[in-house]
Design a protein that fits this description.
Layout: E1 4-7, H1 13-26, H2 38-47, E2 49-54, E3 60-68, E4 82-90, H3 99-113, E5 118-123, H4 128-136, E6 140-141, E7 147-149, E8 152-160
Parallel strand pairs: 4-5
Antiparallel strand pairs: 1-2, 2-3, 3-4, 5-8, 6-8, 7-8
Helix pairs in contact: 1-2
The structure holds coenzyme A.
């Protein structure tokens, strides 16, 4: 499925609430049982930069957020030159067309452009499609930072960035 990337906007909140509920609640791949509602998503969009993937008709089919150090969801960052990738998801009907990889690449390029030196993330053991993307885009496992969330040991990854600008891909 062809797609385009653009910055996430406040008006995307209803579409993102649906996408994240599908990917992280209804999929049964995380312990979360509460759907994402518009108020929570609006807060996430206000606190973080985001990118959405859209289908040809403009429908949002994927998204990712990039949190700066100090943002409420940036639990892994250790300093102002660290960022954290959050909530990568692609609609099940639009998967395996490269949108997930493109969204992670957007995150790394945005982080490098704003002078960050590391991008952190955590992921659940069953999220193997995401792990493939992270590893092929230069993320390294950081097992000493793994922690327990919702009864599972989650995996922490970190992506060092070149200090002189983006060479991602
Ligand atoms: C992870 C996710 C975003 C990937 O989205 P996507 O648009 O399908 O990803 P891409 O099309 O860019 O595929 C990237 C790679 O993953 C591989 N891949 C795609 N679907 C896969 C699957 N079901 N199982 C294993 N690998 C898969 C592709 O082969 C591709 O590898 P390649 O580039 O070497 O060919 C999507 O599967 C998803 O939303 N999963 C549920 C939410 C989730 O786990 N998020 C991560 C939280 S940390």
């Amino acid at each position: 499925m062809p797609f385009e990337l653009r910055p996430a906007e406040a008006a995307d909140a209803p579409a993102l609430a649906r996408l994240w509920t599908l990917a992280f609640v209804e999929s049964g791949t995380t312990p979360r049982t509460d759907p994402y509602d518009e108020a929570e998503v609006s807060r996430l969009l206000a606190d973080n930069d985001g990118c959405v993937a859209t289908a040809r008709d403009g429908r949002v089919i994927g998204a990712v957020l990039l949190a700066d150090h100090g943002a409420p969801s940036a639990h892994l960052t250790a300093g102002t030159r660290d960022g954290q990738l959050l909530l990568l998801a692609v609609d099940p009907d639009a998967r395996s067309a490269g949108a997930g990889r493109a969204l992670v690449t957007w995150c790394l390029e945005s982080a490098a452009l704003r002078g960050l030196l590391r991008v952190w993330l955590w992921s659940r053991p069953g999220q193997s499609a995401a792990h493939r993307i992270y590893e092929s885009l230069g993320f390294e496992r950081s097992p000493e930072n793994d922690f327990e969330a919702g009864g599972e040991q989650v995996k922490v990854y970190v992506r060092p960035l070149p200090p002189d600008g983006p060479t991602i891909g």
